[in-house]
Design a protein that fits this description.
With 403 residues, the chain is an alpha+beta fold. The protein is built from 11 helices and 18 strands.
Length: 403
């Protein structure tokens, strides 16, 4: 290890909700002497994604299961929330962790005994935070962010408006990279390096590490990746192009490059084909239609959830991303709206592609205009007009040209 700086009937676990409260007290007493010790499979531990070893007290932790009431608990002074262990092992349950000032974290169970890092909300429209965690002992993973003239990783923790907030040598804390403000026209590539197996590029330790990458924009968790089941020691997770559009790479490869040389290698890493459409039997269109109905009815939370479900079923569904962007605009989540609109632009194809792209560019331009970033607003309004002429785009250009 290298040195580092400092169903319809209630399932059994719902019938045991009262017992879970007792377990919370027992867990707190049993682990008071060593709060960094794993709490077993009946406890969730909430950490800060940006402050080393900070445990978050007072976070609302919920277990949700379709058709069932939620189980909930608040994290204690050691950041721990205890439940019936069977509840946390239920693969049909989803974990939600929330606290004012932080982005909500969502994770699929099984989730017992795990540590989860909450990300403080980001104010910048072009900010991004990436949190890496893993659960295998004895594995040393590193986050790497490569962009022109910059390589942010453990030996170079700061770059141009980007930084390594937390460096982790083991699974007991997250490793976090923040882009305070993405620079226009530049391409960013994020990857995870299995430092412990840098001389064994054919190792499958990374694939078996339980590594997950959480991507946050504004106040929201926008994307979660799990390490693919492929041998190799470098997981290239995603790339952001010069216009801020995400390219989902999500591939593990083998490399003998040292940590310092990895930045240049990542910049040349091949891309990934467009996402596959939904397989037969999965009804992403129905989920999108539910979202549209909820949006028309003023239920923005329901609309966002439905659009997100459509995207989970079909990651290449441009219209669902476009609709999600509109819902985020109405919800006042500008950074999230820009992210979703850019995904719509990148994925749009077919007869309606120009309409989707034009609307997405216009929405992005409007958000930049409201933020006082008139040059970026103008470039997006121009892009909208190139896709599909419209009077509203001309009016918007005339409006921002006066600044």
């Amino acid at each position: 290890m290298r040195p580092r700086p400092a169903p319809s009937r209630l399932p059994p676990w719902f019938r045991n909700a009262v017992a879970a409260a007792a377990l919370a007290g027992l867990a707190a007493g049993a682990n008071a002497a060593d709060p960094t010790q794993s709490q077993g499979d009946g406890t969730v531990t909430v950490l800060s994604a940006t402050v080393a070893d900070q445990r978050i007290e007072g976070a609302s932790v919920e277990l949700r299961r379709d058709g069932q009431p939620a189980l909930s608990a608040n994290s204690d002074a050691d950041g721990r929330a205890a439940f019936d262990p069977a509840a946390l092992r239920d693969p049909a349950a989803r974990l939600s962790i929330r606290k004012p000032g932080y982005a909500e974290l969502l994770a699929q169970c099984p989730c017992g005994g795990d540590r989860y890092a909450l990300s403080p909300a980001l104010a910048s429209l072009d900010g991004l935070r990436v949190v890496l965690s893993w659960d295998a002992p004895g594995v040393d993973l590193d986050a790497h962010l490569s962009f022109p003239g910059n390589h942010v990783y453990f030996q170079r923790p700061r770059g141009a408006e980007a930084r390594l907030d937390l460096d982790a040598a083991d699974r007991r804390r997250p490793e976090t990279v923040t882009i305070a403000r993405r620079r226009p026209g530049e391409t960013y590539t994020y990857a995870v390096h299995d430092f412990g197996h840098r001389q064994r590029p054919d190792s499958d330790a990374l694939a078996r590490s339980g590594a997950k990458v959480y991507v946050y924009v504004g106040q929201s968790l926008m994307r979660t990746y799990a390490a693919p089941a492929q041998p190799g020691n470098v997981w290239t997770v995603f790339r952001i192009d010069g216009e801020g559009r995400f390219e989902e790479i999500d591939r593990i490869s083998a490399s003998r490059a040292g940590a310092d040389a990895l930045g240049a290698e990542l910049a040349l890493a091949p891309g990934q084909p467009a996402p596959l459409a939904a397989v037969e039997g999965e009804d992403a269109a129905a989920a999108n239609q539910r979202g549209e109905a909820a949006y028309r009815g003023g239920d923005l939370i329901g609309a966002i959830a439905a659009y997100q479900q459509a995207i989970e079923l079909d990651p290449g569904y441009a219209l669902a991303f476009s609709n999600l962007g509109l819902a985020y605009v109405r919800k006042g989540r500008a950074a999230e709206a820009i992210w979703a609109s850019r995904r719509a632009i990148a994925l749009a194809k077919g007869a309606g592609a120009a309409t989707i792209r034009a609307g997405a560019y216009y929405n992005i331009g409007k958000l930049y205009e409201l933020d006082g970033q008139y040059e970026r607003a103008m470039s997006n309004y121009l892009a909208a007009r190139r896709e599909k002429p419209d009077k509203s785009y001309d009016e918007a250009l005339q409006r921002v040209s006066g600044y």
